[in-house]
Amino acid sequence: MSIINENNNQLVAPAAYAEAAVLANTIGEEMLTRLEWMALQPSVIVDVGCGVGYCASLLQARYPTATVIALDVAYPMLAHAKQQEKTDKLAFVCADALRLPLPDHSADIVFANLVLPWLANAEEVVREWRRVLRPGGLLMFTSLGPDTLQAWRDKLGDFTLPHFIDMHEIGDALTRVRFSDPVMDVDYFTLTYRERHAFFTELQASGMIIPACYENLIPDDVLLRNAEHKLEITYEVVYGHAWGPECDADHVADEFGTVKIPLAHLRRRW
């Protein structure tokens, strides 16, 4: 995940993000656990919005014979990831998630951890992901649902960055672009902080709020504290996966009602 504004400018330093990415890493590890349910032998995996490369490294370790492409729009994130990488197996690519520099049907897995919250049009991006995914290939992703930061919306106001998308909206987008068998579920995570500075610093570094000198603009007496007098944030995490359609939506019937599909697009899912 990279924290980018609408002008494609990076808002968070890689080292700061790496230190604050506890939740993103935990979610990524859960995604890897869910891959154990899938009987896949991928040749090409694309980690879209790889950030500092945490999940890309885990994917390479899990599938050592696969080509893992660590892709991110922010070059400093990729540079940091490459510097931390202990092997030379990962392929690092600087590119936009909406314009992947990959051929059609070239990836066996598209992996996207917390990328959708920073993209305005979910349908546009999943359509691009479907383009590069082979028929029967796997899309695995996470996003942030509308319950994220809900108790803080009126206090943080316009400082919040991500788009919080209901999982049903994502499911509808997947269906419209002809993904097969989309499955989604939701989990909730609560992070707590004793000190307000640590609270604001991590929110900024993880991309939840715009980096600015606003910490002192919010009085301490309006901060929400629990019974132990700790600050807390709840995140609604949407987990999802779907399969590339065996019969690509671009294959349409001719004037005789016949649909011609290349044999390469008829491979079995498992």
Assign the CATH topology of the domain at 14-145 and 162-188 and 237-245: Rossmann fold
Radius of gyration: 20 Å
- Name of the top-level CATH class of the domain at 14-145 and 162-188 and 237-245: Alpha Beta
Instruction: Please tally the helical runs, counting DSSP H or I stretches of 4 or more residues.
Output: 8
Alpha-carbon distance between the two ends: 29 Å
Strands of the widest sheet, in order across it, are: 3-2-1-4-5-7-6
- What is the average of the pLDDT values? 85
The major sheet is characterized as: 7 strands, mixed
Envelope shape: globular
Condensed summary:
Helix content is 28%, strand content 22%. It has 270 residues and is of the alpha/beta class.
Describe the protein in words.
This protein is of the alpha/beta class and 270 residues long. The chain has a domain at 14-145 and 162-188 and 237-245: Vaccinia Virus protein VP39 (Rossmann fold, 3-Layer(aba) Sandwich), CATH 3.40.50.150. The protein has 8 helices and 7 strands. The protein has helices spanning 14-20, 22-35, 54-62, 75-84, 122-132, 153-156, 167-176, 196-205; strands spanning 44-48, 67-72, 91-94, 107-112, 133-144, 180-193, 231-243. Helix 2 packs parallel to helix 3 (54-62) and helix 5 packs across helix 7. The protein is globular. The relative contact order is 0.16. Mean pLDDT is 85; it is low at 3-10, 251-260 and 263-270.
